[in-house]
Amino acid sequence: MTAAAARSTVSARPFDAVLDPTTHVQGVPHRLFDRMRDEAPVYSHGRIDGQNVWSLTRIADIQEVSRDVRRFSSASGTVFPNVRARWERTTGPIEDMAFSDPPLHTRLRGYASRAFSPSVMRTMRGWIEDVVAGVLDAAQEKRELDIVHDISEQLPSRVITGLLGVPLEDREWVIETSNRTFSSSNPKIGPAGALAAREEILTYALRMRELRLAEPADDMTTELTRAEAAGEPITETEFANIFLALLSAGFETTHSLLTHSLVLFTRRPELLAPLREAPDQQWAAVIEELLRVNAPISHMARTATEDTEIGGQAIERGDYLITWFAAANYDPAAFERPYEVDFARRPRHTAFGAGGPHLCLGNQLARLESRVMLSEFAKRGLRLELTAEPQRAANVFLNVVSSAPAAWR
Predict the structure, then answer these.
(1) 265 vs 147: CA distance, rounded Å
(2) Residue 240 · residue 224 · CB < 8 Å
(3) For residues 363, 58, 336 and 369, what is the CA-based torsion angle, rounded to 10 degrees?
(4) What would the pLDDT profile of 69-98 be if each residue is shown by its tens digit?
(5) Which of 100, 140, 316, 333 is most buried, taking the most CB atoms under 10 A from its CB?
(6) Helices 236-267 and 104-113: crossing angle, nearest 10°?
(7) What pLDDT band is residue 5 in, cutting at 50, 70 and 90?
């Protein structure tokens, strides 16, 4: 059965609707996840594209799968639909940080992780504050605006392309193209469109490599050309894949978190009002609850490397397990009153992963940018009202709002 055929069985098997991108256009299907967690927390979708596919909705099961890299591998794919096999039929083997297990994953992540360390983030705060001020100043000059395009996308796109040294004239194209690499479930893009976008960015990355080898600069791209692991220099293939990973880590989670947060504050201004004079430490806690409520990444996936068991359910070698982070963050076993937004909560959420080596590379940058943007928005006493309902993308992997028209109050 193909992914398209799976969608046709939704009426007979309602839990299969979680795999249908159109289900997510209406919002994260939390009530459906609640039913699955209660009735079938390890749920079989049957065979899709040659694999037995399962959905996991309990946080304990999701953490177990995420942390056990011996029994559950990332090397055969990490998202639904599982596009890796299709891509490799076209491109040959993919040596990618997302599609790898230790020790390869450890080496590739080591090249990139220093760029997003907490110490590096602290040195960037002043610059990010300046970028935030510029974004909000420009947005305030408009009577009507789009929260996504005029605020949420502006900050992370300027920051990550600036850090990488991407020329100004290329920045819009680079962000738009890298976004398409994660849109294989979007019917308008599909696996072929996502692969084409990926190849375009990888080609661009190698052009940037050649440019920085000839003309070094004070940016991440130059530093990446000099990277080594155990005395071995980074290869061209590794460079290109890590360039894409840095782009994605620096943009996608931040822009989604900002959009959902600003829409939430627009609909519920009473949540924002008490935060106008909040200290930075309080904002750090606020960001964690916002991440729990609206996780930017809806799921990741793993492949079983052996016959095993999860949540009392027998799993066969080769089965594909979708770990729904969006469901885990509303699991009442971990979070009391999960549908209540509680900024006094100290949630140990799964917005950036549920443990293990694949913690989102850009999590510290996303936290910092969001904290600076939302706290400045509150300090300025800004208020927006939606002029139309936000539009969501058809995407089962990313929790994406594509447009949110608004006006200043």
Answers:
(1) 12
(2) no
(3) 10
(4) 999 999 888 989 876 665 555 555 566 777
(5) 100
(6) 70
(7) very low
